[in-house]
Amino acid sequence: MSDTTHAGLTIEITPGVAIPAHLVGEVQSKLAYVDERIRAAEVAPSGDRITLQVQAEEDTPQLQAELDEKVQRVIDTMVKGAFKPKIQVLEDHLQRPTPYNQDPMQELVARGEVSQEATGMFSLGPLVTRLIDYFEDQFLGLADAFDANPYRFPTLIPAKYLERVNYFSAFPHSLSFVTHLREDLDVIDEFAQHAACDQHGLNTPPDSFAQVQALLSPAVCYHLYFSLADQPLPNGRLAATAVGSCFRYEAINLASLERLWNFTMREVIFVGPKDYVLKNRENARQHMSQVLEETGLAYRVESANDPFFIGEFRKQAAFQSAFQLKFEIRARLPFEDSTLAVGSYNYHQDFFGRHLNISLPDGSPAHTGCVAFGLERIAFAFLAQYGLDVRDWPASVREAVHG
Ligand code: ATP
Ligand code: ZN
Ligand code: MG
Fold first, then answer.
1. Are 370 and 267 in contact (CB under 8 A)?
2. Is ligand 1 within 6 A of the CB of residue 312?
3. Which of 63, 128, 290, 326 has the fewest Cβ atoms surrounding its Cβ within 10 A?
């Protein structure tokens, strides 16, 4: 079934198997990567209907068949045989009263506090920057509580490193590749004279670019593990902290400050024996519980899984759930009655220790875990709950931001 609108075509697809409620969001987020012609995708909450907005000249049986086949493939791979994970709630402060219930984006833009360079790329003004600095102070306080050593990491990450930790099969869809012009006088001259942008981007022929050796880093803690690879872990344990730019291409899911292509993550990272990592992850959660209470944020901490791509999703999500590997801090967004992950508590077991050959004094592979915060997101969630008028903010935040 379809009809034509001025924005393109609307195509409805009936899933071969109904999508259970707990997978509706996961499937919907993956539809962004199914076909370049899809401009918007929505899975009905009941899971038995998918509506696609498609950029195409005319509706043809072939277009329908192609989209139907790809969408059914996603559903089959993600849904068939999936079991419902038991969501574990570690803290629930979702109903903490907060004064604001608008989408703060419009006012942020009007005040010059947020300006969009392109989809998923934003500049932030003084108020938002000071608010992020306030949260950064809290995260540095968390790091201090563990005597975590500070590190700085590059924004680029070598392709061969990501390959070594199976990143390409787990998260291929959100990778951002880096290249440069080939070291060739003709290629560089040609580019200098003819490079121009049309509505699709640069007009440069793909063979002008060198083969990809580096990507934009999708996370911070990987860099620490790479620096520890192929050697015994000095002292047998390590607490570290770093902040860095991270990149995840989230296609049509990129939306306001909620979901960026280019964002900033602060991590506190633990490497050592299993008990050490698990105990510190739990201590970090308890420390943050106090901090978040002071900031007044309304949130819940609950079990979650990483956004694995379609082929890896079902197995890996079940694995993470069964072993309680990931918990998210989900802040309330009152204006859309939803929640948004502003941070996560992660335990990787000995995955990085094994793949990168990081060994403990007894020769066994090190375990790792990290606590990761999205700086733009936590500021956005706070503003969605408290608005832009600092007089409405909790005293500790107001004083820190406004003196
Ligand atoms: P989500 O569930 O929203 O896709 P995630 O589970 O992929 O996030 P993590 O890998 O746990 O996120 O990353 C740690 C934190 O980094 C998240 O809790 C979030 O605050 C932030 N983050 C992740 N992806 C983005 C993004 N695309 N834009 C802005 N912040 C992000
Ligand atoms: Zn991490
Ligand atoms: Mg998540």
1. yes
2. no
3. 290
5 by DSSP, 3-state: which? strand
| Residue 6, pLDDT score | 52
HSE toward the beta carbon, residue 25, CA cutoff 13 A: 8
- What is residue 7's predicted lDDT score, i.e. its pLDDT? 56
159 Cα–ligand 2 center, Å:
18
Torsion of CA 198, 258, 333, 125, to 10 degrees: -90
| Nearest ligand, CA 377 | 1
Exposed, middle or buried, 34 (CB in 10 Å: 0-12/13-18/19+)? middle
* pTM score: 0.95
**Which tens digits make up the pLDDT trace of 381-395?**
999 999 999 999 999
Low-confidence ranges of the chain (pLDDT < 70): 1-7, 403
DSSP per-residue string spanning 167-224:
HHHHSGGG--EE--B-S-HHHHHHHHHH--EETTEE---GGGBPPP-EEE-S-SHHHH
- Cβ–ligand 1 distance for 273 under 6 Å, the answer no
Tell how far the Cα of 306 is from the centroid of ligand 3, in angstroms. 5
How many whole angstroms from 22 Cα to the centroid of ligand 3?
13
Q: What is the pLDDT of residue 369?
A: 98
Q: Ligand 1 pocket: which of 33, 377, 380 to mutate (most atoms <8 Å of CB)? A: 377
For ligand 2, the distance from its centroid to the CA atom of residue 267, given in whole angstroms, is: 6
CB of 267 shorter than 6 A to ligand 1: no
pLDDT at 255: 83
What are the backbone dihedrals phi and psi of residue 8, each rounded to the nearest 5 degrees, phi first? 140, -150
- Cβ–ligand 1 distance for 375 under 6 Å, the answer no
- How many other C-beta atoms are found inside a 10 Å radius of the C-beta of residue 31? 24
